[in-house]
């Protein structure tokens, strides 16, 4: 399969997922931005209307992975791919497979239905194939794969990584910061991200605020960096990507790493390493600068409960510019290559 065709399938999912990212992320951002902040994070108990806004945003945001998966499958197999794609994406959320699980389920569902459609059947059965046979058979297979094959290994892997991080917590601070930053950015709110995040949150309970400080800086860098990249050279990005960039900036400001997902889903081989590098740089600066975060959250919004605020902001800024600079360079080079090939 050609790379361009593979990218087309991913973009099919991304184009439908972006509105869910934007609407859900902005509603969550508004609610958190105006909610009273405590050492435990935003306190919605004193702001019931903001809690309602947050709940609505969370619902919209929770549909991101199923929609991404469903429309990747749709791009491959047309309408018969929608049901197994959505089912696989929903299960990816349930088993904690996150963004990467959604990509995998969408591709698996799409190709499964694509090849099921090639099976020759009697003429009198053909009319019911798209509305009954394909959805039932493909959903059953994808559901089994996601629950029994993909879900369990991811769960076991996360437990192993958590134990490893606990050992690393007593070791070299720079290496630990690089690992945490890379994990935070790798799947943008997925299981690997959550392991690093909850490790940082657990350290708060033990009186170590530096781990969460490094995580907090890393959390917001991917969306902020990619959002900034769309502003540096707007000609390198489509109108849809520029809109996603504005949403990413808002989400990054309140510590929602998932704002980077549309960019990573469209171009994972370039975007993911870049945001991992940027978040790692930010985490290292925060760790060396002895940034302490007293709340289990990240981004500029937690500034009131952060120790050594100047270094915290510096870590975020440097990491953001690393992501924005590298992505701008890569996009410009890719555009030149495409223009040269077309000439």
Question: Would you write up a description of this structure?
Answer:
The longest helix has 40 residues, at 129-168. The protein has a two-stranded antiparallel sheet with strand order 1-2. It has a two-stranded antiparallel sheet with strand order 3-4. The model has no long low-confidence stretch (mean pLDDT 86). Strand 1 (37-38) and strand 2 (41-42) form a beta hairpin. It has a domain at 169-343. It is mainly α and 343 residues long. Helix 1 (3-34) runs parallel beside helix 10 (239-253) and helix 7 (173-186) runs antiparallel to helix 12 (268-288). It is 76% helix and 2% strand. It has helices at residues 3-34, 48-62, 64-77, 82-94, 98-116, 129-168, 173-186, 191-205, 210-232, 239-253, 261-266, 268-288, 309-342; strands at 37-38, 41-42, 292-293, 306-307.
Structural class: mainly alpha
Helix content percent band: over 70%
Q: How big a fraction of the residues is strand?
A: under 5%
Rounded mean pLDDT score = 86
How is this structure best summarized?
Helix content is 76%, strand content 2%. It has 343 residues and is mainly α.
Q: How do the strands and helices of this protein lay out in sequence?
A:
Elements: H1 3-34, E1 37-38, E2 41-42, H2 48-62, H3 64-77, H4 82-94, H5 98-116, H6 129-168, H7 173-186, H8 191-205, H9 210-232, H10 239-253, H11 261-266, H12 268-288, E3 292-293, E4 306-307, H13 309-342
Antiparallel strand pairs: 1-2, 3-4
Helix pairs in contact: 1-2, 1-3, 1-10, 3-4, 3-5, 4-5, 4-6, 5-6, 6-8, 7-8, 7-9, 7-12, 8-9, 9-10, 9-12, 9-13, 12-13
């Amino acid at each position: 399969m050609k790379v361009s065709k593979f990218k087309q399938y991913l973009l099919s999912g991304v184009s439908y997922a972006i509105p869910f990212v934007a609407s859900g992320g902005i509603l969550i951002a508004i609610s958190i931005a105006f909610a009273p902040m405590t050492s435990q994070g935003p306190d919605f108990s004193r702001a019931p209307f903001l809690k309602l806004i947050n709940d609505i945003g969370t619902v919209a945001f929770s549909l991101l992975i199923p929609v991404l998966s469903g429309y990747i499958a749709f791009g491959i197999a047309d309408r018969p791919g929608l049901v197994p794609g959505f089912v696989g994406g929903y299960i990816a959320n349930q088993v904690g497979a996150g963004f990467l699980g959604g990509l995998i389920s969408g591709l698996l569902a799409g190709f499964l239905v694509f090849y099921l459609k090639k099976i020759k059947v009697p003429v009198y059965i053909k009319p019911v194939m798209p509305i009954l046979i394909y959805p039932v058979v493909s959903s059953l297979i994808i559901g089994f794969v996601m629950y029994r094959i993909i879900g369990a290994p991811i769960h076991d892997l996360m437990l192993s990584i958590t134990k490893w991080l606990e050992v690393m917590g007593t070791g070299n601070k720079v290496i630990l910061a690089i690992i945490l930053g890379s994990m935070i950015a790798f799947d943008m709110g997925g299981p690997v991200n959550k392991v690093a995040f909850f490790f940082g949150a657990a350290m708060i309970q033990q009186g170590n605020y530096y781990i969460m400080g490094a995580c907090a800086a890393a959390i917001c860098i991917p969306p902020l960096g990619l959002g900034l990249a769309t502003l540096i050279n707007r000609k390198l990005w489509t109108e849809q990507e520029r809109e996603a960039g504005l949403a990413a900036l808002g989400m990054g400001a309140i510590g929602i790493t998932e704002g980077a997902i549309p960019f990573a889903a469209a171009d994972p081989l370039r975007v993911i390493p870049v945001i991992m590098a940027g978040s790692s740089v930010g985490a290292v600066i925060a760790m060396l600068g002895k940034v302490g975060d007293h709340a289990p959250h990240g981004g500029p919004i937690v500034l009131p409960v952060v120790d050594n605020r100047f270094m915290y902001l510096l870590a975020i800024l440097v990491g953001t510019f690393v992501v924005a600079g590298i992505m701008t360079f890569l996009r410009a080079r890719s555009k030149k290559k495409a223009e040269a090939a077309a000439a």
